[in-house]
Write a structure and sequence with these properties.
alpha/beta, Rossmann fold, nine-stranded mixed sheet, globular
Length: about 210
């Protein structure tokens, strides 16, 4: 069973830049918003990806790591397309579509990890969570509840890091002993640690790593 991992944070918090140490043969990158990566890289990015293109690639499962950049826009773009519909059932449809994506991730091989880089939002109670498109959808689908690891990206303008456990105001979480409380925003290092913790296969085989 594949593993979804959420990386949530506000715009500019270092989510996309965390990909900087991956090599092209190690990860597949889907850009939902069609944005280029914020650093020079040879990584191939599938621009303007949608549910179908992402799920088709996951079904082929040629890699052991994937990244869905700006995954919150999968919900937002669905909402824009159906903005004129008056029926409340569309919110159930939004939840089902995103749930089906997470299910497709879990149906990949046991050594596959899919990182969802997702914008954060602050609730009325001051809690920082994964951004959705309103309380009606939140009542049906708690995104963070569907995976074991949620990292929170934050910066003070100089240092960029991930929080790996909740400080009482975020939904960050990870298994006990996997990470220290604060880590560098290096998603390849995160990937290596997850694989070590769960005895998963490395991101690429040794012969592939030499290429």
């Amino acid at each position: 069973m594949g593993m979804p991992v959420f990386v949530i944070g506000f715009s500019g918090s270092g989510k996309s830049s965390s990909l900087r140490n991956f090599k092209p043969n190690e990860v597949g990158v889907f850009s939902v918003a069609g944005k280029r990566l914020p650093f020079q890289s040879e990584l191939k990015v599938a621009m303007n990806s949608n549910y179908q293109t992402i799920e088709n690639a996951l079904q082929r499962n040629k890699l052991r790591a994937y990244v869905i950049d700006d995954s919150q826009y999968l919900l937002a773009f669905d909402s824009f397309r159906r903005a004129k519909e008056a029926s409340y059932t569309k919110f159930t449809d939004y939840a089902v579509s995103f749930y089906n994506l997470l299910d497709a991730i879990k149906r990949t091989s046991p050594d596959t990890i899919v990182y969802l880089l997702h914008h954060a939002e602050e609730t009325d109670r001051g809690m920082i969570k994964a951004k959705t498109i309103g309380k009606m959808l939140d009542n049906q689908l708690v995104l963070e509840g569907l995976c074991e690891i949620v990292l929170y990206a934050e910066t003070d303008g100089k240092k960029y890091q991930f929080l790996t456990q909740s400080n009482g105001f975020t939904t960050a979480k990870s298994p006990m002993g996997m990470f220290p409380l604060e880590i560098d925003n290096d998603l390849k290092a995160v990937d290596s640690q997850i694989r070590k913790f769960y005895n998963m296969e490395p991101i690429v085989d040794k012969e592939e790593e030499k290429k």
